[in-house]
Amino acid sequence: MSTMTGAHTQVRRTHEVRVLDALRQHGAMSRSELARRVGLSRTTLSDITADLLLRGAIVVADTDAAVRSGSGRPAERLAVDPASGQFLGVDFGHRRVTVAIADASHNILAEGACRYESDANWERRLAAAYGLIDDLATRNGVHLSDLQAIGIGVPGPYTYACEGAPTVTWKKQLAPDGVDRAFEQRFGAPVMVDNNTRLAALAEAIAGPSAADDLIYVRLSDGVGGGLIVAGRLVMGTRGYAGELGHVNVDPHGARCQCGKRGCLETVASVPAILGTCRANGLDVETLDDLAEAVRISDPVAERVLRDAGGALGRVLGGAAMTLNPDEVVIGGEIVHIAPVLVEQAASTLRYELSPIPTDQTQTVRAALLRDNDGAVGAIASLFHQSPLAAAYSAVAPSGRRHPHEGV
Ligand SMILES: [Zn+2]
């Protein structure tokens, strides 16, 4: 295990990224060419490449014997191993698992998804994930023997397993106990687990058109979750609950929520809540596809239900935006692409809520750019360290095996 200090580790990672970038852009190179190109001393470069070779991130491609003009021993030429999966991102949703595999340069080598029943137990979910990972690796010719780290997103609020604080979620049947250990044992790499919505927020902040320092992200899915970027950092909160906007009350006498309260935002703006309200108003919709069709033909019931949900969402976002004064508010989840009216209404309500605040900029409210793979990509992003957004995850070093909250 590494005993390097944080600053030393950071410098070394920066060097690694430069070496990997140079090899990816310019192809195979000898150590001396590489040292010249990235501006490192031969000693430092040898140290970095030895470690990358050991980790399987790069390989000895050939020697420069064929192009060498002078005498002497041919020099080995190094190249990025295009088949070496170095980082694995796994997002366990309510009804499916999504997987992304990235190489040492953080390029996605393979990604895919596999469905399961919403009441599937963790044994079944793990089996689905393993099957999908094996299939992706085989079909794309990627090997996972040199994995550096695994990021896993799980549904619902995720409480870090601090000493004396057991891992809990509100949905007991979804408690991800042992998922981290199962992956660590199977792949022999350190595992980081977090709430998949927060990982989606991270991916969205990185993917966004501008690097927002202050961003509110909310995702409407089977539940409603969120994530906050504050002063350029993904915020987790004391126990990992920061950004749980789905359980802000919007109606004291509303429907009972899975968390035990009544009238949470989730009871009006989650996908099941929206479909249920449509049905209660005589519109026969079972799935998002049915809702998409109702939106396409401008069904008035669908329009009203979506506007009501958007209004409730806008009021909750208004409270959060009044507190945080963000650059950007992002609404994610498949439904926002099906029903843009929901985002329009949320944006309109949010503008009204913020009208007392003098602003010299237009408040940006947008639908998320990423779609199905946001959690898996975010899980991988959380393992990378160049982004200050992911600073809170810096304890999961490629050579370390510590949990995010075991101290940095
Ligand atoms: Zn609730």
Question: What does this entry look like structurally?
Answer:
The longest helix has 25 residues, at 300-324. This protein has helices at residues 6-26, 31-38, 42-54, 122-140, 179-187, 196-207, 266-269, 271-280, 288-296, 300-324, 334-338, 340-353, 374-381, and strands at 29-30, 58-63, 76-80, 87-92, 96-102, 108-115, 149-154, 191-195, 215-220, 224-230, 233-235, 328-332, 364-367. 38% of the residues lie in helices and 17% in strands. It has a five-stranded mixed sheet, sandwiched between helices. Strands 11-10-9-12-13 form a five-stranded mixed sheet, with helices on both faces. A three-stranded antiparallel sheet has the order 1-3-2. Helix 10 crosses helix 12 (340-353). A hairpin with a 5-residue loop joins strand 5 and strand 6. It has 408 residues and is of the alpha/beta class. It is elongated. It folds into three domains: 2-80, Winged helix-like DNA-binding domain superfamily/Winged helix DNA-binding domain (Arc Repressor Mutant, subunit A), CATH 1.10.10; 85-198 and 373-406, Nucleotidyltransferase, domain 5 (2-Layer Sandwich); 209-367, 2-Layer Sandwich (Nucleotidyltransferase, domain 5), CATH 3.30.420.40. Zinc ion is lined by residues 247, 257, 259, 261, 264, 266.
